[in-house]
Amino acid sequence: MVKMLLGILIGNLGVTLDDSKLESLIGTKLVNMNFYPTCPNPELTIGVGRHSDMGTLTVLLQDGIGGLYVKLEEDALVGRKEEWIEIPPIPGALVINVGDSLQILSNGRYTSAEHRVSTTSKQSRVSIPVFTAPRPTEKIGSLPHLAELDGGALYRDVIFQEYMNNFFGQSHEGKKSLDFAKINAN
Ligand SMILES: O=C(O)CCC(=O)C(=O)O
Ligand SMILES: [Fe+2]
């Protein structure tokens, strides 16, 4: 399913990647099982702090409790201020998150979802994300066709293992990890 989704998302940008390339871009797969116990003072705790997932696409199953928030970036063009919106649990629905690797490959046309989780004082929560990410040896950077169309690459080529080392080598601060691959990050 993830391979098909990725093929469609990249295809919509006018780039066709063959099956083995798509496979390489989601070749690392990891399942987490998150348990968030109840917390008497949810406002004083962080369930999961703000971050984006480092991989390509994340498929997330959450129970019915809620508490997952995604940041909508400020957009002056449409007069929107930065806002955190809750992703309500819908029975039988999966949440699909764009990760940093897809942001890099798409030259920023898809942006990774910055998200966080808050706990509640009444009910514990369980979520199961399935992360897909490039193979550790895979080189990722802005896809050349998109860099050309956009008048330049926003991201340099990095070996995914290096991106991962950097991601886990520092504490998460929103989407700061992306700076590692950004050209002209300041
Ligand atoms: O629990 C959730 O809904 C999200 C967890 C998460 O963001 C993560 O494990 O990366
Ligand atoms: Fe996450």
UniProtKB/TrEMBL annotation:
InterPro entries: IPNS-like_FE2OG_OXY (IPR044861), IPNS-like_sf (IPR027443), Iron_ascorbate_oxido_reductase (IPR050231), Oxoglu/Fe-dep_dioxygenase_dom (IPR005123). PANTHER family: 2-OXOGLUTARATE (2OG) AND FE(II)-DEPENDENT OXYGENASE SUPERFAMILY PROTEIN-RELATED. It comes from Coffea canephora (Robusta coffee). This is DH200=94 genomic scaffold, scaffold_6681. It holds the Pfam family 2OG-FeII_Oxy. Residues 21-134 form the Fe2OG dioxygenase domain. It comes from the Eukaryota.
